[in-house]
Amino acid sequence: MKAAAKAELQDRSALARLRDMLRKLYHGRTPAAFRFQLVAIIIDLAIIGFFIATPVIQQSSSFLWLDYSVAVLVAADMAARLLASNDMLRLIRQPASWIDVFILLTLLMPTALANLGFLRILRLWSMSRSGRLWRHLEMRGLRRWREASHAVINLLTFLFVITGFVYTFFFRSQAGLEGYIDALYFTVATVTTTGFGDIVLPGIAGKLTAIATMIIGISLFVRLAQALFRPAKVFFPCLQCGLQRHEPDAVHCKACGHLLKIPDDGD
């Protein structure tokens, strides 16, 4: 009994050490943590590039190997972030975690969920909601560009999601790069309301797709313009009420009056 209790205690100790190490890597500000976070961002961008290229390369013989390799990376990242979290339940409840679970399912079942594969690009959106990406920008004095970066990423995510949807459901006969470029061309022309008319989607479903693309696309363009041209604000949570955005030179929180200590960009 003592030996079993000792072994269980050692297992718990090993798990505690692992969680502590992952917390330092994912949330720390040491040089080693920043290097790890930078490598994680580069891997995330490579995975997103794979998702974008999937319609073009999915017929190749090596596609399944790449698909399952990405699934391993996504699963490992999800498990590591879960262990590194101080509140696992809260992390699981977040929409970004649901998106990652869905992406993992499409990677593990690429044939059964082939028609939903275009939603994998939502990984770009969930990545933009992670603190490790913006931490690097803030360390380089780019805090004021965070909101504009969010708007750009939202627009890019929307463009690639719609492109994937159009390619999957309207350009199946044009497999490969040409069909994907046609889908992207239609999406950009529709979002910008240019409407050349040389590529159109057939039927009622096509018209409804074009209508939804135009309405949402215009909204995202307006959001991007607001983020670029309205007075810049910084992200600095108020310790009293939790308000996230403040004027760069704010001394007190405009919601509750709590004293703020917003660092200068050069700090």
From TrEMBL:
<dbReference type="GO" id="GO:0008076">
    <property type="term" value="C:voltage-gated potassium channel complex"/>
</dbReference>
<dbReference type="InterPro" id="IPR028325">
    <property type="entry name" value="VG_K_chnl"/>
</dbReference>
<dbReference type="Pfam" id="PF07885">
    <property type="entry name" value="Ion_trans_2"/>
</dbReference>
<dbReference type="InterPro" id="IPR013099">
    <property type="entry name" value="K_chnl_dom"/>
</dbReference>
<protein>
    <submittedName>
        <fullName>Ion transporter</fullName>
    </submittedName>
</protein>
<dbReference type="GO" id="GO:0005249">
    <property type="term" value="F:voltage-gated potassium channel activity"/>
</dbReference>
<keyword id="KW-0813">Transport</keyword>
<feature type="transmembrane region" description="Helical">
    <location>
        <begin position="96"/>
        <end position="122"/>
    </location>
</feature>
<keyword id="KW-0406">Ion transport</keyword>
<keyword id="KW-1133">Transmembrane helix</keyword>
<keyword id="KW-0472">Membrane</keyword>
<keyword id="KW-0812">Transmembrane</keyword>
<feature type="transmembrane region" description="Helical">
    <location>
        <begin position="32"/>
        <end position="53"/>
    </location>
</feature>
<feature type="domain" description="Potassium channel">
    <location>
        <begin position="157"/>
        <end position="228"/>
    </location>
</feature>
<feature type="transmembrane region" description="Helical">
    <location>
        <begin position="151"/>
        <end position="171"/>
    </location>
</feature>
<feature type="transmembrane region" description="Helical">
    <location>
        <begin position="208"/>
        <end position="229"/>
    </location>
</feature>
<dbReference type="GO" id="GO:0001508">
    <property type="term" value="P:action potential"/>
</dbReference>
<keyword id="KW-0407">Ion channel</keyword>
